[in-house]
Design brief:
The complex is a heterodimer. By secondary structure, chain A is an alpha+beta fold. Helices cover 53% and strands 15% of the residues of chain A. The longest helix of chain A has 37 residues. The radius of gyration of chain A is 37 Å and the shape is globular. The two termini of chain A are 61 Å apart. Chain B is built from four helices and three strands; from the N terminus they run αβααββα. In chain B, 30% of the residues are buried. Classes of the chains: A alpha+beta, B alpha+beta.
Chain lengths: 876, 110
């Protein structure tokens, strides 16, 4: 308490510094003059009075300085002095500063980039009011929401549902994802829109009106961030909606990783709008709630479950009573729901682990640089110690240097990480619902980086500071450090540091090898025929607007026109297509057996278009149309599983739970492909003729171009869509190659980033070896020159110098290989599907490390044998 | 020259200043004169060392200072005790008396 008062008083001084100083000046003058007057009055001469007064007062300067010192934060002034001194020493050794700052920047940058991603994906709370009182309920019967509202434990309960919508602004229709939310959604979350006032008061009170709140990014993308957008009318599924707000940047709803284009109010329960199924409350709905003040989550959960039991007992719909929902579980909602981003948690954790090793290597590198410097500065430090500087004071000085290096590194690192933040999203797979992660630099990242660099400074600076100030005074002052021949202080620690750098680099290289191998193992070999030439166009004709017959007719017409384009080799439709983001297996029965298979509905020419070879039988033909017998084509593994080697062609096959009890006749077999998931062995697939089915939901047009040029082809295909029907939305346009890359996006992310880390680690370790050897050569300059003078061959000198390097690298490599096994267990714990490293990876990693070590050896070794004995000896 | 700590018990100067100001606000020179008189020149305190002490006590919040006019019609800085200062004076007086009593006790029994 008193300390606090002292501090605030001092802070006041810092503000009114000049006034207090002049007060002091004035006061001392008053004292002296009063005394002089008094003495003069008692009979002394003016001069004597002055002399006596000054004598009694003592040193004016001292009184002034000590008084001023009472007000100052001493450590502030000391710190300023330390910083000045550190900057002066830095200016004298720019090479050291650049090396240290870059090493640290790479380490800190690696971590803060991964932190940014982890924060965005896992940790950062939603930008809503009081996120801690938000809870998620998952899907509940819609009728339950009103009951929960009245349970007394929630201040509000909101429902939401997201799905595709057809948006048109006068031009061609665009497929977007909209979220229908309870009218009180924005109020319950306590989010204020950037523009407008969100849903009107009437809507919030239950009178539905066609109002829409745009997301910030949709507003920027589609409306050019036009502030006059409020009040404008847009058409969603042909229904006119009025724009009443634009969400603030950063607010993307309660589903982490999503950024739906707009939000519209849900209709009251039991009502519906024919053109837009999305906004009907329906039977089930995703729900979230805000806890009433003072209510805990477990209290609310108990109350909610009482309501649920009561609701289920009296549910009007027997269907609801039969559901398995027996208990509600309230999850903390402050961070939103993370189903979309869950797959990235483990990947990012592993990347954080790798980044931490990079920083560790960087720290050890800079620590050994500092120790080398300390040896060079041993005399300076000894002199300062002998002149009475306290050890703590000197250590502080050295630590201030470390902090400065670390802070400079943090600044560079933030630049590095803002660059990597731009790289990370490239690995995020994009399906029919985009994943959006905000990786922009923010205050949390800044704060983290600052804290990290402080810890880093201690990590690499403390040991060298302790070492440097433990100098044996007499020895350091007496001996010429350059002439010392024994193993001086700190050299052993430095060797240990360098060896540990090699050790960690080997570990990083090994895991990189493991990731790259996994990537290769996963890359599907099924689509080898120029997947980069295959363009995919997904269509989303809204079922409310297009009848099944019209959808088929339009899709068929587009297909016919596209197939005739000169740049197109072949084109086909598929409801799902390979590696689409939708997959759901169905049970297939034939010959008395059944198996789970991925079903799909395709048009003739599909297999040739995506580059999957047909093994037996025929492809679908235009002749397979409604009214003709149902036909199917199966993958080899399905044929093998159901028919055991007997010819499947002509065999009947059925889908379980098929309401129409269709019997399909197998007309063809194609080779196995990874159709839904590349992470598992290729699963059985069964294809049905498009014409056989009478509806499509979200089909994809697959177009194989004649050349690798895709931009012109994309425009041409889009043109055909426009000519046939501008209200038929097309989205998610990409190549098959892009889709394959997306399927292994996480593995590509980890392999690429860890490869980057591996290169950095290798560089740092090589730098460490180089530094240690260069220093050793400089230290043993005299010894080497004597050896040369006595007739040693340059070869033997190179061997002498290399021995230390080989020893360092060898120790590190052996240590790394010893740790490799537990490390790979650790990685496999996080990433279960990881390939084992195998000998090729181990040999590769070791030889790369040895190569780097050899390169690092070269310069000091050559320098050693070029030592001119005469000059070297004369210099010393 | 700074205060010679060997001749002065720790905190004595603070105690003297607090004690002096207990009678009312005073400027620095007057405090110096009063201390000189009160201790009958027995303490070797240089006038100059009073000011760092005054400033330290300002920082601690025991004293407050404001400008006024001295008896000889000059601008002077007047110090007065704050509530914290008064409390400190009581505490230090008690401590000092205990110390003196203990010393006397030792002197008598020795």
């Amino acid at each position: 308490m008193t300390l606090w008062k002292e501090w605030t008083n001092r802070l006041r001084y810092l503000r009114g510094r000049t006034r207090i100083d002049s007060d002091l000046e004035h006061e001392i003058r008053f004292h002296l003059e009063s005394r002089i007057d008094e003495l003069e009055a008692s009979g002394l001469s003016r001069d004597d009075a002055r002399r006596q007064a000054h004598g009694e007062f003592g040193s004016v300067n001292l009184a002034r300085d000590d008084s001023r010192a009472a007000w100052q934060f001493r450590w502030v002034d000391d710190a300023v002095a330390d910083v000045r001194y550190a900057l002066r020493t830095f200016r004298r050794s720019p090479g050291f500063v650049v090396t240290a700052v870059l090493s640290l920047a790479l380490g800190i940058g690696a971590i803060s980039a991964i932190f940014t991603a982890l924060d965005a994906v896992v940790w950062r709370p939603l930008p809503v009011a009081d996120p801690d009182s938000l809870v998620l309920l998952s899907a509940v019967p819609a009728g339950l929401i009103d009951r929960l509202r009245q349970a007394g434990v929630f201040s509000d309960v909101i429902g939401m549902r997201a799905d595709g919508l057809s948006f048109d602004d006068g031009d061609r229709a665009e497929r977007i994802v909209g979220e229908a939310v309870s009218p009180t959604y924005f109020r319950a979350l306590g989010v204020r829109p950037l523009l407008g006032q969100a849903f009107s008061a009437a809507v919030e009170q239950g009178t539905w009106a066609p109002e829409a709140v745009l997301s910030y990014s949709f507003w920027k993308r589609r409306f050019g961030a036009d502030p006059a957008v409020i009040g404008r009318t847009i058409r969603l599924n042909t229904v006119s909606f009025t724009i009443v707000g634009v969400s603030a940047p950063g607010f993307t709803g309660l589903t982490r990783g999503s950024d739906y284009e707009l939000r519209v109010p849900l209709l009251a329960e039991g009502r519906e709008l024919r053109q837009m199924r999305l906004i009907a409350t329906g039977d089930w709905i995703e729900a979230a709630a805000r806890l009433a003040p003072g209510v805990t989550r477990s209290q609310a959960e108990a109350a909610a479950n009482t309501q649920l039991r009561e609701f289920m007992r009296t549910a009007p719909e027997p269907r609801l009573r039969e559901t398995r929902l027996r208990e509600l579980h309230l999850r903390p909602g402050g961070r939103g729901s993370d189903e979309m981003l869950q797959p990235f948690h483990a990947t990012l954790s592993v990347l954080m682990l790798l980044a931490a090793s990079v920083l560790l290597i960087a720290c050890s590198n800079v620590a050994s640089l500092l120790m080398a410097r300390a040896t060079a500065r041993a005399r300076e430090i000894a002199v300062r110690l002998s002149m009475g500087a306290r050890r703590l004071r000197l250590m502080r000085q050295l630590l201030v240097e470390s902090f400065l290096l670390s802070m400079m590194a943090a600044v560079v690192a933030l630049g590095v990480s803002s660059w990597t933040s731009g790289v990370l999203p490239l690995f995020v797979p994009q399906g029919h619902i985009s994943i959006v992660v905000d990786l922009a630099l923010n205050a949390r990242v800044l704060l983290f980086t600052l804290a990290l660099s402080t810890v880093t400074a201690l990590a690499f600076g403390l040991l060298p500071a302790l070492h440097a100030t433990r100098t044996d005074l007499a020895a350091a002052l007496k001996s010429d450090s350059a002439g010392a021949t024994g193993v001086p202080h700190g050299v052993r620690t430095r060797r240990l540091l360098v060896a540990s750098q090699v050790c960690f680099s080997i570990l990083l290289l090994l895991s990189t090898g493991q990731f790259v191998r996994t990537l290769f193992d996963l890359s599907p070999a099924d689509y080898q025929v120029n997947p980069s030439r295959v363009l995919l166009f997904t269509m989303k004709p809204q079922p409310e607007i297009y009848s099944p017959a019209r959808k088929l007719a339009i899709a068929g017409e587009v297909l016919r026109r596209v197939a005739q384009l000169p740049a197109v080799q072949s084109a086909a439709l598929a409801e799902r297509g390979p590696l689409g983001s939708r997959n759901e297996s169905r049970t297939v029965q034939a010959a008395g057996r059944s198996i789970d298979a991925q079903p799909d509905w395709v048009s003739p020419g599909f297999f040739d278009t995506i580059g999957v070879s047909r093994v037996a039988g025929r492809d679908f033909t235009p002749g397979d149309r409604p009214g003709t017998p149902y036909v199917a084509i199966v993958s080899q593994s399905l044929a093998r599983a159901l028919f055991d080697g007997t010819d499947p062609i002509g065999q009947p096959l059925q889908l379980s739970n098929d309401r129409r009890h269709r019997v399909f006749s197998i007309v063809g077999v194609v080779s196995d492909v990874h159709y839904a998931d590349v992470h598992r062995p290729s699963e059985p697939v069964v294809w049905f003729a498009f014409q056989a089915d009478d509806d499509l939901y979200m089909p994809t047009l697959h177009v194989r171009g004649r050349t690798a040029e895709t931009a012109g082809l994309t425009a041409a295909v889009r043109g055909e869509f426009d000519r046939v029907d501008r209200g038929f939305p097309v989205f998610n346009i990409r190549t098959l190659e892009g889709r394959i890359e997306d399927a292994i996006g996480r593995e590509r992310m980890i392999a690429n980033i860890s490869a980057g880390f591996g290169v950095v680690a290798l560089l740092l370790a090589a730098l460490g070896i180089y530094g240690a050897l260069a220093y050793a050569v400089a230290r043993r300059n005299r010894e080497i020159s004597i050896r040369l003078a006595l007739g040693s061959t340059p070869g033997s000198i190179v061997a002498l110098v290399s021995r230390e390097g080989v020893l360092l690298a060898g120790t590190g490599i052996i240590a790394g290989l010893t740790l490799a096994l537990p490390a790979s267990w650790l990685l496999a714990h996080y990433l279960p599907g990881l390939s084992s490293p195998g000998w090729s990876v181990v040999v590769g990693a070791v030889s790369v490390m040895l190569g780097a070590a050899a390169a690092a050896l070269c310069v000091p070794a050559l320098r050693a044998c070029r030592v001119d004995p005469v000059t070297a000896l004369r210099q010393q | 020259m700074p205060v010679d700590d060997a001749q002065l018990l720790p905190g004595t100067l603070y105690l003297l200043v607090l004690r002096t100001l207990a009678n009312g606000p005073m400027h620095g020179y007057a405090i110096a004169r009063r201390i000189r008189e009160a201790s009958a020149n027995g303490l070797d305190i240089q006038d100059g060392s009073l000011y760092p002490a005054l400033n330290r006590m300002l920082v601690k919040g025991w004293l407050a200072a404001e400008w006024g006019v001295s008896e000889n019609n000059r601008r002077a800085r007047f110090y007065r005790l704050t509530r914290d200062g008064r409390k400190q004076l009581e505490a230090e007086t008690r401590e000092f008396e205990t110390l003196v009593r203990n010393i006397q006790l030792v002197m008598r029994t020795a």
